[in-house]
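ESCALATION

Customer reports they have been waiting on this structure for their group meeting. Please prioritize. Original submission:
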Amino acid sequence: MESKQDKFVRLVDLRLPKILHGIKNLSNLANKNNYEYGEGQAHNILAQVHESLDDLYRCFGIDPQPTEPSEVKVTASDLKYEQLEEAYQDITASRAKLAYILSKETKRDN
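Update from on-call: job pushed to the front of the queue and completed.
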């Protein structure tokens, strides 16, 4: 019978690539050669992604990183790279934190 830990790892390995692929697909919408959008629309998309990441932090019992609205004007291409890089780093950090927490739980259970 599959342990809860093994099931968790198996499902993370199935679900995380789908989420990352979805983020990549969203980033394709930033291509101004194929799509037309306003800066407000781009900010809305990124705010929703960020909110979902904050919810994910809370689901795992981790306080989300505090964020402050930026006063700096950036171009859509800057947003694409910087925001996606930040999202990737957040996901990577979350996965590392989760692995650490799970390793502590596993040690405690043994």
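Sent to customer with the following note: The radius of gyration is 17 Å.
Escalation resolved.
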